[in-house]
Amino acid sequence: MIFRKVFTSSIILMLAAEVWSHVEIEAEDYFFPLEPVINFCKMADQCQHDFVPICAQDSLGLARMFNDICDLYEFNCDYKKQYQHVKIDTCKFEIETATEGFKS
Fold this sequence. Notes:
Residues 1-21 form the signal peptide. Helix content is 58%, strand content 11%. It contains four helices and three strands, in the order ααββαβα. The radius of gyration is 24 Å and the shape is elongated.
């Protein structure tokens, strides 16, 4: 009987410790991001334009098209933004509205 109580208590404590460790990690990620701040100005200076259109998205979920990756770096540098390259499908609405002018 005592063994069962000790065993059950230890399982409950282990589960509580597991949940608490996840809470600490999430709070740590919120206050101390794992990704370092990227120096987009330096990357823009070293980049060669290839004029391959890309889609990028910021942390708020706003997506937009750029002429190429260098254009993305320059925009982030000039406007102090953090747009990241994402799949082209994310900018599907922008692509459709841009091509509507060519259909007429």
